[in-house]
Design goal:
This protein is an alpha+beta fold and 118 residues long. The chain is built from 3 helices and 5 strands. A hairpin with a 5-residue loop joins strand 3 and strand 4.
């Protein structure tokens, strides 16, 4: 009878260890995915291409009459845009021209200064 009683305990112990191991793996994977914005978009600042402007127009983004872009170091089709209409209020946007997606507006990153001349 003791072997019958130990099986549920062993199973519970193994499940607990498995769950703990998976939690640790997920936690470390999540930590590896977080990058400092200046590492993800290292620069230099680039002129916004017509392809990016077309996506902004398609998505009805009017806040980017003046804009500069930085290309992602991890995904060459993703750009960080700093945009303004009146040079006082700046916003940031993430644009993927090939996928025709736009995310934003967001605040500016503390570790990525405005482009020179602004």
């Amino acid at each position: 009878m003791t072997s019958i009683e130990r099986k549920p305990l062993k199973l519970l112990f193994r499940c607990g260890l498995t769950l703990l191991g998976m939690t640790c793996l997920i936690g470390t994977a999540d930590a590896r995915l977080k990058f400092v914005p200046s590492e993800l978009f290292p620069g230099p600042w680039l002129e916004v291409t017509q392809e990016i402007r077309d996506v902004l127009t398609l998505k009805h983004v009017s806040a980017c009459s003046q804009a500069m872009a930085r290309q992602s170091s991890r995904d060459p089709d993703e750009y960080l845009l700093y945009c303004t209409r009146e040079e006082r209020h700046w916003t940031s946007w993430r644009v993927r021209p090939a996928a025709q997606t736009v995310r934003g507006p967001e605040g500016l990153s503390e570790d990525i200064p405005l482009p020179d001349g602004y």
